Amino acid sequence: MEDIRAYIESGILELYVLGDVSPTEKQQVEEAALKHPEVKAELDAIEVAMESYALAQAIEPSEKEYDRVLNSLLVNLGDDRTFSKARTHTDDDHKVVPINTQRTVNFYKYGFAASVFLLLVSGVALVGLYSRLQQSNEIISSLRNQNQHFANQVNLMDEQISIFRDPSFRFVKLKGTPKSPASGLTVAWSQTKGKVMIDMADMKLPANDQQHQYQLWAIVAGKPVDLGVFDAESKSDTSGMKEMKTVEQPQAFAVTLEPRGGSVNPTMDAMMVMSAI
Amino acid sequence: MSRRSKITLTEEELVRGLRQREKVAAEALYSMYSASLYGVILRIINDEPSAEDVLQEAFIKIWQSFSGYSAEKGRLFTWMVNIARNLSIDKVRSKDFRNQTKNQGLENNVTFIDEQRNTVYKPELLGLKDLVQTLKPEQKSILDLVYFKGYTHVEVADELDLPLGTVKTRLRMAIQQLRKHF
To answer: What DSSP string describes A162-196?
Structure first.
């Protein structure tokens, strides 16, 4: 075949073996080699010649190069049949690692932000709760005071009611003397219990000053007996019953205005109210 | 260092072993071809440490991409030497390498290497050495420019101010000369 002969002699096969052909020419040579045995034979001869040329000019690399090359070839032999797979693996690892790191970084970043946020929120909540607790405590203590107050009042009322209910008590209404006709005072007296009470709520006496106090007297066998002092208009005393000293067999009750602390004998001029029993 | 016993396999055995990724095949590959490939690489690069790096790179690439080789397309050595040549030429043309070797003239490196070292002492190669000497200088220079310098035949034609056809003919003649010995 004339053109095959010419094709061989064109030198293209030599250039093919030397790697100096375009992709199209490469394909043409490979197709020709498949189709024509003489092309294939010519190629083989050229290759053998070039291999011999290289061998003729061969240079032994240093001894250490053997271990270096073989180690780099065989290092992955045990676990991976192909290097390309191993490489894909490494590529995957490379892809995964930064994402993981990113995630971790983000996790800690967001975690830290969330912690700070929660800390602030709980701080604010704590302050709010604390002030409400304070308010509640104030309310509780004021309620407790009020409760105490009511309980006291109820006790007082109970006491008063029991006094009023007690048949042994006699109620003596002391009337104003000519010196103070408007005055009045109720004295409750129980002979069996020997108790004397004055009704502070029903008291109608002019207010006393700091130097003076009212003094309750009982007339026993014609003689005045001291039953104690009290204040008119003193807030703690203005309600309820005030218990006075005990007396037996009184004939009359009287109240005089005396120097503070009371007197041994009543000042008759200053008698405000009295009543015989 | 003890000299290793050379492992030699037929090309067919070697190819099968490399397909199976056998250790002994890798060792045989190195034993059989490292010197030939290194001779080509060192002539292109003319710097031993870099040439050794490229030799390692070339063997790794051969090993890794061995599935890409098919015996139908040609001899194993042809496939391997093209990988080694391409890596070497890339290396020589890289910016790093050019800066590193600025002061050396690359033109005469082929003969320079041969003067410098006594290449390989192998009785069976003595005839081949003579064969290299039998090439006419104009044949050898064209073959070496293409084979060792990575020139295309078009570039050689420009460089030597020769017609393209003459370059092709001389290349073919040079290779024919080599073939006479086989």
So the answer is: HHHH-TTEEEEEEEE-TTSTT-EEEEEEETTTTEE
Could you tell me if B155 and B51 are in contact, meaning their C-beta atoms sit under 8 angstroms apart?
no
For chains A and B, what is the number of CB pairs under 8 angstroms? Answer: 154
B35:A77 CB<8 A: no
Q: What does pTM read for this prediction?
A: 0.52
Contact criterion met (CB < 8 Å) for A63 and B1 = yes
Q: State whether residue A52 sits within 8 Å of chain B by CB.
A: yes
| Residue range B65-110, pLDDT digits in tens | 888 888 887 889 999 999 999 999 888 888 777 776 655 544 445 5
Go through the domains of chain B in sequence order and give each one's CATH number: 1-104 (1.10.1740.10), 121-182 (1.10.10.10)
Residue A22 near chain B (CB below 8 Å): no
- Largest interatomic CA distance in chain B: 52
Which strands, in side-by-side order, build the sheet including A271-276?
A223-230, A212-220, A252-259, A271-276, A169-176, A184-190, A195-199, A241-244
Structural domain boundaries in chain A: 2-59, 78-165, 169-276
Measured between CA atoms, how close is B98 to chain A, in angstroms? 23
Tell whether the model's pLDDT for residue B34 goes beyond 60: yes
